[in-house]
Design brief:
single chain, 17 strands, alpha/beta, five-stranded parallel sheet
């Protein structure tokens, strides 16, 4: 059954300044809970983050959140978590790219900021739960434990980026939008009925701490000065040069600047990024087929699985599901795909599902390719 409460809770509503978190806070208050709104200031210089209505880290966003809280009729505060965000999310993002991996900063923000730093502070202040505008559902199992499930509407489901939450955190998490079969237009219409000015505010996109959406430019500013490296084919022959391996991701096709076609005339894709010798290896799309992977730092949404099991896995925030078998051995998750998949890169998260239930997530460390069986 869906998580319910027989008594009003003291709820801290994380309000980004967007429509989802505003409606979530309003629904929590309407349900009779004692709600306090909080906006997280995540930048020491908010104007260096995205301007307009595209991010969640601007001065404008904090003002939008405050206005929404005033309309709902709840207290509102701004909490400065800029230093923690810089260390745990931004610096981690840069370090992962420098190491040749492809991180997911939204997932890391949920783990380290919203459901670690924020939740810990909320509990210390006597709050019972943290409320966010994520589309996911917390279910109370018969044994009293909490489970994380997909949202009722798969088109809006955000359980992938919440797969890092453990059972203790789920016990204090509230997602008022997750169990309602409503379109985003209906959420906006609800916001308008409630008198919330953010009803027509565009959704945020891309990475909130990259001001202009130029990820490569952002990384170049922080990792620039690296010696240029070689672009190689699968046999190790030099095809061209690059200005920094951090500017590439596994599966990338455009922007390779190789200068001449492959012998078979087909496009080439990034197969491997080696920060040790600063090389990027490219090859045919078929070479991207991954049959298995290993993943580290597992996080379980409840009791860890024991022994081998059959699950579905999601590899990207907006990706589909694929059938896998998985087993945890000495802290490392070993995943084998029923059918090969593409676009899998070290640093990404693999999230396991049992039906709609989120089993847990782990960070991809290596991949096994169909033909080369090479580490990713």
């Amino acid at each position: 059954m869906t998580q319910t409460s027989q008594r009003p809770l003291r709820v801290l509503a994380a309000m980004s300044g967007g429509v989802d978190s505003a409606v979530a806070a309003a629904r929590a208050a309407e349900a009779g809970h004692d709600v306090t709104g909080v906006h997280l200031a995540l930048s020491a210089n908010p104007q260096s983050f995205r301007t307009g209505a595209r991010g969640c880290c601007t001065i404008e966003d904090s003002r939008d959140a405050r206005r929404a809280a005033d309309v709902i009729g709840i207290p509102f505060y701004v909490w400065d978590l800029a230093e923690r965000f810089r260390e745990d999310v931004v610096e981690d993002f840069v370090a992962e790219y420098e190491a040749g991996r492809t991180p997911n900063p939204c997932l890391r923000c949920n783990e380290k900021i919203k459901f670690a730093a924020l939740l810990d502070k909320a509990l210390a202040l006597g709050f019972d739960a943290v409320c966010t505008g994520h589309y996911a559902t917390v279910v109370l199992a018969e044994d009293g434990s909490r489970e994380l499930h997909r949202a009722s509407d798969m088109a809006k489901d955000q359980s992938y980026v919440l797969g890092v939450l453990d059972e203790r955190q789920l016990a204090h998490a509230m997602f008022p939008l997750g169990d309602t079969l409503t379109t985003k237009d209906e959420i906006r219409a609800e916001a308008e009925r409630r008198g919330l000015a953010v009803a027509k505010k565009p959704d945020s996109h891309d990475i909130c701490f990259i001001a202009d959406g130029d990820t490569q430019g952002f990384l170049a500013d922080r990792l620039g000065g690296k010696a240029e490296g070689d672009i190689l084919d699968e046999a190790g022959a030099k095809l061209g040069t690059h200005e920094g391996a951090f500017g590439f991701t596994i599966g990338q096709r455009k922007g390779l600047r190789i200068g001449h076609p492959a012998p078979d005339g087909k496009p080439r894709y990034v197969l491997d990024i080696s920060p040790v010798n600063n090389t990027v290896t490219v090859g045919p799309v078929e070479a991207l087929d991954v049959t298995a992977l290993t993943a580290i730092r597992p996080r379980w949404c409840g009791t860890p699985p024991s022994g081998p099991g059959t699950y579905t896995a999601q590899l990207r925030a907006h990706g589909g599901e694929t059938e896998v078998s998985a087993e945890l051995t000495d802290g490392t998750l070993h995943v084998t795909f029923t059918e090969p998949v593409r676009g899998v890169a070290p640093g990404q998260a693999v999230v396991l599902y049992d039906g709609t239930r989120v089993v847990g997530s782990a960070t991809i460390a290596t991949t096994v390719r169909r033909e080369t069986a090479a580490a990713g």
